[in-house]
Design goal:
The protein has about 400 residues and is an alpha/beta fold. The protein has 2 domains: about 10-325, Divalent-metal-dependent TIM barrel enzymes (TIM Barrel, Alpha-Beta Barrel), CATH 3.20.20.150; about 330-385, no CATH class. It has 15 helices and 10 strands. An 8-stranded parallel beta sheet has the order 8-6-4-3-2-1-10-9. A two-stranded antiparallel ribbon has the order 5-7. The chain is globular, with a radius of gyration of 23 Å. The two termini are about 25 Å apart.
Length: about 400
């Protein structure tokens, strides 16, 4: 077996909306026929995926009757069981229906906010019924074009009210479920509230039940803003708040492209996988590895499954490259030489004695600054590992 072929133990997941994307865009109609959720489950299993995620409407079309909903869910559950797949995450579509044209939880109309809460509670029930342990919130319409329509502080407060309400709903139902908030700077709104993972991390600290809420960073969303996705993910991991992650690829300054993972900026993809896998010796991320991406508009259904396999294979290849890089003796020496065992203990945990010892250190700034750090060599070694010549 090819070592880079995915298996269920790799924890790879796709959304129904990702491989089910029909290739429609603002300038052209669909190029692929819609795929039945049960068909998607079977094909993803054949590709080596572990799980499949969904918005409520991905599985149960908006406006379905109760009996139709139950039939769809029953058939979907049977497909999951037949093909050994799971549903690790679910979410609610609060952006497609016209009622959400000016937001869901942040709308100025209380009837819209009520509808959004009701729709989300129903979606949570569906996700839990299918086995989801994480529930993601992406506020695709929670923003503005005419910014004078509301005080942004009002939008923050309304979002907090909604999250606190839904946390209490989950607690009252006894569900084993956590929430993950997904940031995005813009599109489909001119500006979206909570545009980065950092914004979300602070917001979480203001909630009534912050222990229930983490983040779901997405490669494309941070990259759209010109930010380092790896740094945002690292901050979330350091805070113990990386509950889920969306993997794809994106060019800086473009619309939300959702390209195949690793197809743009291989360097950043490598550094991200290195971080998530903990190949430097740090604690790894152990949750689902979700690909929130879709195939090019040029593809038919066969190309969709090429895309899915490509996302997973690229991740595994980069993981192998990261392991080799961090095991390279020269790399380890270059990183290790930055440490100073005598000084490090003085730099944290203030005491009067440590402060005195710091003041007594013989530190020569001019001499220290002359020392080259050899980051050019370190970066070249990374490139050579990436290119497979080392």
């Amino acid at each position: 077996m090819d070592p880079f072929d995915p298996t269920a133990k790799d924890r790879f997941t796709f959304g129904l909306w990702t491989v089910g994307n029909t290739g429609r865009d603002p300038f052209g109609e669909a190029v692929r026929a819609p795929l039945a959720p049960t068909h998607i489950v079977r094909k993803l299993s054949e590709c080596g995926a572990w799980g499949v995620n969904l918005h409520d409407n991905d599985l149960v079309p908006f406006g379905s009757s109760a009996s139709e909903r139950d039939r769809i869910v029953r058939e979907f559950k049977a497909a999951l069981q037949e093909h050994g797949m799971c549903v690790p995450m679910a979410t609610t579509n609060l952006f497609s229906h016209p009622i959400f044209k000016d937001g869901a939880f942040t709308s100025n109309d209380p009837k819209v906010r009520a509808f959004a809460l009701r729709k989300t509670m129903d979606g949570i029930d569906l996700g839990v019924e299918l086995g989801a342990r994480v529930y993601v919130f992406w506020g695709g319409r929670e923003g503005t074009e005419a910014d004078a329509c509301r005080d942004p502080r009002t939008a923050v407060a309304r979002t907090r009210e909604a999250m606190d309400f839904l946390c209490d709903y989950v607690r009252e139902q006894g569900y084993d479920l956590v929430f993950a908030l997904e940031a995005k700077p813009n599109e489909p709104r001119g500006d979206i509230y909570f545009p980065t993972t950092g914004h979300m991390l602070h917001f979480i600290s203001t909630l009534a039940h912050p222990e229930m809420v983490g983040v779901n960073p997405e490669v494309a969303h941070e990259t759209m803003a010109g930010l380092s996705f790896t740094h945002g993910v690292a901050q979330a991991m350091e805070a113990g708040k990386l509950f889920h992650i969306d993997l794809n690829a994106q060019r800086i300054g473009r619309y939300d492209q959702d390209f195949r993972f690793g197809s743009e900026d291989v360097r950043q993809a490598f550094l991200l996988v290195r971080l998530l896998e903990g190949t430097l010796g740090t604690a790894p991320y152990t949750g689902p590895l979700h690909f929130d991406a879709h195939a090019y508009r040029s593809e038919d259904e066969a190309g969709v499954w090429d895309f899915a396999r490509g996302c997973m294979r690229t991740y595994k290849i980069l993981k192998a490259r990261a392991q080799a890089f961090d095991a390279d003796p020269e790399v380890r020496a270059l990183i290790a030489e930055q440490n100073d065992a005598a000084i490090e203990p003085l730099l944290s945990g203030y005491t009067k004695d440590k402060a005195a010892k710091l003041r007594a250190l013989a530190l020569d700034p001019a001499s220290i600054s002359k020392r080259g750090l050899r980051y050019e060599r370190l970066d070249q070694l990374m490139i050579e590992h990436l290119l497979g010549v080392r």
